[in-house]
Write a structure and sequence with these properties.
Elements lengths: L7 E5 L4 H11 L4 E6 L8 E4 L5 H15 L4 E4 L15 H29 L2 E6 L12 H21 L4 E8 L5 H6 L11 H11 L11 E4 L4
Parallel strand pairs: 1-2, 1-4, 2-3, 4-5, 5-6, 6-7
Helix pairs in contact: 1-6, 2-3, 3-4
């Protein structure tokens, strides 16, 4: 399939299970892939190592992508992190900074680096990964819920700001994704009810496609049967 032939698709968090599935999805459809992560990825696609929580590191990595592959058509903000177990009043600065940095600040830094270029080229698609937990506060998950709520609010604000300039910004709200890490953490769960990374990648691909052009600021629940 060549739906994204010659389109430059930038995927953050590309080394993770979902990131890998998103890379494979777009690669199978003809895209030119750029991968951003804190580790080097050796899979035949362009990779830039950077710290997504650092503005300068992110800007430098994005500049390298554009120099190597050309203007970015699709930004898939897949990078994120999860941690729970602390009550709000017990939340450490380390936990707060980790979750806000990886889940929220990474999205902001990528927006700073990519949106000006999309405005110059006349359009683009941005897909963020929120979470169902971002819709309401959950016990022992206050910091995580707050960080994912920020992703949803940033998505809505960006969509309002950019919709008239041919840039679509939407986000996905997964529940539990069927990854090796989640299986190890929840060995007694019914994995068949979880959403696979490949299925999640299909939703990312749809929101990045021409079929999603009328959609702005959506927060799409992707929960499978969980």
């Amino acid at each position: 399939m060549t739906e994204f032939a010659d389109k430059v698709v930038l995927v953050t968090g590309a080394a993770g299970a979902l990131g890998q599935a998103v890379v494979e999805h777009f690669a199978a459809r003809g895209a030119k892939l750029a991968q951003l992560d804190v580790v080097e990825i050796d899979n035949g696609h362009y990779c830039a190592v950077c710290d997504l929580t650092d503005t300068r590191s992110t800007a430098s990595a994005v500049a390298d992508v554009v120099a190597e592959l050309g203007a970015i058509d699709v930004l898939a903000n897949i990078a994120g992190g999860f941690k729970m177990g602390e009550s709000v009043h017990e939340t450490t600065a380390e936990t707060w900074d980790f979750l806000m940095g990886l889940n929220a600040e990474s999205v902001l830094n990528m927006a700073r680096a990519v949106v000006p270029q999309m405005l110059t080229q006349g359009g683009g698609k941005i897909v963020n990964i929120g979470a169902g937990a971002g819709l309401s506060g959950i016990a022992q998950m206050g910091a995580y819920s707050a960080s994912k709520s920020v992703v949803i609010r940033l998505t809505e604000a960006m969509a309002s700001e950019l919709r008239t300039q041919n840039i679509n910004v939407n986000c996905i709200l997964p529940s539990v994704i069927d990854t090796p890490r989640n299986r190890a953490d929840m060995p007694e769960a019914d994995f068949s009810k979880w959403v696979t990374p490949a299925a999640m990648a299909e939703v990312v691909g749809f929101l990045a496609s021409g079929a999603a052009t009328p959609i702005h600021g959506a927060a799409v629940p992707v929960t499978g049967l969980s």
